[in-house]
Amino acid sequence: VAGAIRGNAGAFGKSMKDVIKTVEVFDVKSNKIKKIKNRECKFGYRSSIFKKNPNLIILSAEIRLEKNNSKKIKKYLEYRKKTQPLNFPSAGSIFKNPPGFSAGELILKHTKNDYSLFIARSGNILKDLFEEYLLYYQFPEMVLQEDKDKIRKYITESVYKKTIEYDIPKLFGVEKIDELKFLFQILVNENSSLIEFKTISSEAGIEENTLKKYISYFQESFLVDLLYNYSKSFRKSKRLQKKGYIASSNFFTAFRFDWTENPILRSQYFGSLVETYVFNLLKEKYQYLSFYRKGQDEVDFVASNDYRNSGAHALIEVKYTNEIKWNDIKFIDRIAKKIFKTRYLVYSKSEFKIEENKLIVPCFLIK
Question: What is the pLDDT of residue 56?
């Protein structure tokens, strides 16, 4: 509140100067607390006496509110939700509107051009660095290591020798270590895919309940994590379909090194690794994370810090292809409009676009 008063924050033709009666401040210079009336605050466009006098520390304020038409208020809220991505992390606007212009429109216009030029000049270099990072360099101790075989050996020994062969058996009393190793290899191979417990149980020769226990051990050991299908009930979502993600895309490189130098296999698997990278980023930023699946169509991620408010959900799709076509995003576009009534974000290989209902950003620009 104090910051809003200091900057005379406002929207829709109104600002703090229209509601403030008095402001209580502590004057550092006089070492006294005093009240300042509205007219003494010298409110202007995003300015006030408090902005020009840092010795005045705002303690409290008396605000005069007035009743308004509920339909009008609802209209304002809907417009705000439509024009501002409240479901994505944001520090809010800190820009002033020049006379006769919108700061947002000016920034958008020039940002588009600047980013397009930046990507045209440096995109391929950044993309190559990003792909190298996904394949080999997520372990800090390996950043300066140029020998790829040594990197694979380090990761294999760290995961197999230490965690799977020693830590998990010791912590959870697992005796059949070969089953653990075999299951982890399956999860690596089928990374970012739906986990079919009955199918894996049959193929691996491991009882389904034991299989679920092993996966929970991998979760507790930070090797694998699960993503659940979206439901309006968070508890119900835990009982729906699940997808498995390895904790580092470097695991895939270590255990499936045969594909990295093969262009066809590389393009086939790389989207899965990028999706894994995005998943591991999102789970650190959002309290609730799921995927949205209907039939064979799927939205990669539905993220939110307020699960009960569908309008506060962020919809995110990963499309690591040379060109994003309409068929690639038409499902998320439909779900964003009809179900969540929000914009959506697409992480691409190198495309950058800002449109009214979506934002397309190259993966190498996110962190």
Answer: 94
Interatomic CA distance for residues 286 and 88, integer angstroms: 10
Residue 93 clears pLDDT 70, i.e. is over it: no
- Residues 155-166 pLDDT 10s: 888 887 889 999
Locus of tokens 């005093």? 34
pTM for this predicted structure:
0.68
Residue 112 pLDDT exceeds 60: no
Q: Kindly list the distances between the CA atom of residue 134 and the CA atoms of 31, 160, 250, in Å, as whole numbers in the listed order.
A: 57, 20, 6
